[in-house]
Amino acid sequence: MVLFSRSTAFSRVTTLAARRQVHTAFAWMHNNPRTIMDWQTKLVAIPAPPFGEMARAAWISECFNKAGLSEVNTDATGNVIGIVPAKHLPAESSGPVVVLSAHLDTVFPPDTLINAKVVEIDGCLRLAAPGASDNGAGVAGMLALAHALIHAEIELPVPLVVIGNVGEEGEGDLRGIRHFYNESILASRVAAHIVLDGAGADSAVTQALGSLRFQVEICGPGGHSFTDAGTPNPISALASALAVVGETQLPDEPRTTLNIGTIHGGTSVNSIPERAAASIDFRSTSANELIRLEVALHRAVEDAVNRANEIATTLRGRSRGTLTFSINKIGDRPAAHLPPDSPMLETLRSVDRHLGIRTDLRLGSTDANVPIARGIPALSMGAGGDGGGAHTLAEWYNDKNRELGLRRALLLTLAIAEWAAEQ
Fold first, then answer.
1. So what's the pLDDT on residue 318?
2. Residue of 359, 336, 341 whose CA lies nearest to 409
């Protein structure tokens, strides 16, 4: 194993950047801005709601084959996977691989009207459409890197596994990347993982924000508000529990938040409801804080239901039954962070130094949560350009400086692949 240092990383990057094949790849990126934007426009026009990414995955699979990726396949959960092989390794090699991924899904329901429009402003291309930046920019950037690598005939020292994955957003709960690491035969070989997510060329998510999400449901016999008065009320019990949860003390450090996102139940104003439910979101940079909040939620709900049932039993014959409850985990994203001396982080700093960029390291919840939590050098970064209005119908993307972001991602990929080959 070769010892890693900042000077080693910078030397590696500058040597790579001087190679003829790398300049050929840069030239492909420079000469094809409209091709890349065409891909992005076609992509966002294909609906990819949570758990409904099939049509977009089929399009990406076709794109992977056209780009010249090998072993293109779609796994059981819907991820599309292709490989840029290492030039001097046999196909049956069991050595390390590097992963480059971008999520296919959006937050928008399947019936969302998408009228993707591209206009040219001051020599730059601007795309307006839901999902244009998140994650149209990341997926288009991933396709651009694959084309540039193959066009330039760059000799990779280890295979590059390219993944268009499902299930990053919201209720998807990182299911695509989680499935890859749990089920793929390649997972144990991953030496590093680069996630392309959204726009930008001057930031990277290196601290994984953890989250736990729960659906709380309280059920009872229900009844008429007057004739069945005294029957325990699920909404009342749920409201009591949520009031306690909402007053839970949260630390400033590690930063921790809680949110009661939805609450619903009942039939009419003069009916005792049979059911009440709520969804709760906990987020923290600390796994211990998430556990503490989970325990607090369970205790608050159990206490509220027990108290409602105790009151009902004192009413003798007036109560028609008791309440029951369930608490189901509907989201679980691990909290973790990339160590300051990580080879991935040192390599990114070296790339930025070479390109004259200063990276802002950020906290976020992305596909990189999964590999970082497993101790794999990983980060999430933009694919260049600028964007805004994420997760709204007014979302947009401008390709100004896209080329800089793609150069950054390419150099990082190549440099970390060389590092991986030495391990």
1. 60
2. 359
* Cβ pair 67, 146 in contact under 8 A: yes
The answer to whether 397 and 240 are in contact (CB under 8 A) is no
CA gyration radius for the chain? 25
CB 53 within 8 A of CB 78: yes
3-class secondary-structure state, position 107 = coil
Strands 360-364 and 203-208, bridge-based pairing: parallel
- Residue for token pair 């059981």: 76
Residue type, 153: E
Tens-place pLDDT, residues 21-57: 999 999 999 999 999 999 999 999 999 999 999 999 9
Give residue 87's pLDDT band: very low, low, confident or very high (50, 70, 90): confident
- Tally Cβ neighbours within 10 Å of residue 21: 16
Residue pLDDT, tens place only, 194-242? 999 999 999 999 999 999 999 999 999 999 999 998 899 999 999 999 9
Measured in residues, the chain has a length of: 423
- Nearest-10 crossing angle of helices 287-313, 234-246: 140
Tokens of 406: 């793609």
CB contact at 8 A, 344 and 12: no
**Contact between residue 221 and residue 321 where contact means Cβ atoms under 8 Å apart:** yes
Task: Name which of 300, 298, 305 is nearest 329 in CA terms.
Answer: 298
Q: What angle do CA 190, 195, 196 make, to 5 degrees?
A: 150
Handedness of CA 348, 350, 351, 355 (dihedral sign): positive
Dist CA 102 CA 165 (whole Å): 6
Confidence (pTM): 0.91
Helix, strand, coil percentages for the chain (3-state, nearest 5): 40, 25, 35
